[in-house]
Amino acid sequence: ESGVSLVNRTGEALTDIVERVSNIAELIGDIATGAQEQSVGLGEINVGVTELDKVTQQNAAMVEEATAASTTLKQEASTLQQLVARFRLRNAAPGRPTARPAPSARPEAAPAVGEPRKRAVNDAGWQDF
């Protein structure tokens, strides 16, 4: 009887070991699935960071261009100011601005509704038939 009892206990222990190995294999499968999902998520984050870096570099380039354009504009404005300062107008008081706003040209008013338009008259030998 003790031999049979030992065989039965050994069988139960082996069954328990198989169940535990099966549970461990399932846990390892779950870990592998989680690692794969994390890998996909990290890939998407990497794409986002790469795009953000690209946009940041584009913005930096635009800032450099704007700075260069601003510097050039400042230099050109200074040059223009020096060139304009050479001009002198007669009867202008020194040290006072000589530029005056140009008078606005007013367009001719359109004829009122129902009023006939004025026509140019040229009677140089023409007759109406």
UniProtKB/TrEMBL annotation:
UniProt keywords, alphabetically: Chemotaxis
Family matches, as Pfam families: MCPsignal
Domain Methyl-accepting transducer: from-to ranges: 1-56
SUPFAM superfamilies, alphabetized: Methyl-accepting chemotaxis protein (MCP) signaling domain
Entry's Gene Ontology BP terms: chemotaxis; signal transduction
Bias-annotated ranges (Low complexity): 91-112
Protein name as it appears in the record: Methyl-accepting chemotaxis protein (MCP) signaling protein
Renumbered residue ranges of the record's region Disordered: 91-129
Native source species: Rhodovulum visakhapatnamense
Stored PANTHER family: METHYL-ACCEPTING CHEMOTAXIS PROTEIN 3 (PTHR43531:SF11), PROTEIN ICFG (PTHR43531)
Coiled coil regions in record: none
GO cellular component entries: membrane
Family according to the record: Belongs to the methyl-accepting chemotaxis (MCP) protein family.
Lipoprotein in keyword set: no
